[in-house]
Design a protein that fits this description.
The strands form 3 sheets. The chain has a 6-stranded mixed beta sheet with strand order 8-7-9-10-11-12, with helices on both faces. It is of the alpha/beta class and about 270 residues long. It is built from 7 helices and 12 strands. The longest helix is centred in the last third of the chain and has 14 residues, at about 180-195. It has 2 domains: about 30-125, Roll (Ubiquitin-like (UB roll)), CATH 3.10.20; about 140-265, Cytidine Deaminase, domain 2 (3-Layer(aba) Sandwich), CATH 3.40.140. It has helices at about 50-60, 120-125, 140-150, 155-160, 180-195, 215-220, 235-245, and strands at about 5-15, 20-25, 30-35, 40-45, 70-75, 85-90, 160-165, 175-180, 205-210, 225-230, 250-255, 255-260.
Length: about 270
């Protein structure tokens, strides 16, 4: 089975004893154009794989579509397209629309989830406040990171890719997705839930392999996820958004300890 997420490249490895040329495994980064009803909405730098989920999750977390709006998601069939494998065509359910597309420059790098926004106001796509009462045991939080790490097959091969995972309050890991962009990995997880008609995701926990940035918190908020945890730190804007929206935000999950930035009442 071909691994679309990684590729071999020759490298020169330098050590104290000298240098040697040998193959290395790298995470793949390629553009993916998302089209909605024939219109180009965005070009996202991502790791190939689970592109249908990425498209659904992106359109949903950007609040372009609502649950039930998407009718079809397919690979590009345009004969004139140079790289049809990197184009996803999304069609709406008959009767839905017209939709208001965001003012974007139609390009988002793997490191930036809000690139291309036309204004500061456009960055904020969610203003909901979570009323979710689900509580999570501390051992579920600390166990989420090793569970995520064990499922990161492409990271195991490359050491250079992010991951996001969705868990139940009992700690059951439902899905894991990897991508060079942490926000893409989150979109793939949320897209997985969208395509299974599981949204909103109240009563679930999202765990990410990197830092908790504003765009990751915002995507989790749009999906109705009450708890977001990660192995690294959170940014100030991410903490402010989590606190204002009633979300539990946790960082530095390492061993049996972690830091709660907001919403500590959900942690048992």
């Amino acid at each position: 089975m071909t691994d679309l997420g990684s590729v071999d490249r020759d490298v020169v490895r330098v050590k104290r004893a000298g240098r040697s040329r040998e193959p290395d495994r790298l995470a793949v980064e390629e553009p993916c154009e998302i089209r909605l009803e024939g219109d180009s909405v965005a070009v996202v730098m991502r790791t190939p794989g689970h592109d249908r989920e990425l498209a659904a999750g992106f359109l949903y977390t950007e609040t372009i579509v609502k649950p039930g709006d998407i009718g079809t998601i397919s690979a590009c069939t345009d004969d004139d397209a140079l790289n049809p494998e990197n184009i996803v065509e999304v069609g709406l359910v008959p009767g839905v629309g017209p939709l208001t597309l965001p003012q974007r420059n139609f390009y988002a790098t793997s490191s930036c989830g809000v690139c291309g926004k036309a204004s500061i106001e456009a960055i904020h796509v969610a203003d909901a406040r979570l009323r979710e009462a689900t509580r999570f045991k501390a051992e579920v939080v600390t166990g989420a990171v090793p569970a995520l790490r064990a499922a990161q097959t492409t990271f195991e091969a490359t050491g250079g890719i992010h991951a996001a995972g969705l868990l139940t309050p009992d700690g059951e890991l439902l899905v894991v997705r990897e991508d060079v962009g942490r926000h893409n990995a989150v979109d793939k997880v949320i897209g997985w839930a969208y395509l299974r008609e599981l949204l909103p995701l109240g009563g679930h926990m999202l765990v990410v392999s990197g830092r908790q940035s504003f765009e990751v918190v915002q995507k989790a908020l749009v999906a109705g996820i009450p708890l977001l945890a990660g192995v690294s730190a959170a940014s100030s804007l991410a903490v402010d958004l989590a606190a204002d929206s009633g979300m539990t935000l946790i960082g530095f999950v390492r061993g049996e300890s972690f830091v709660v930035y907001a919403g500590d009442e959900r942690v048992i």
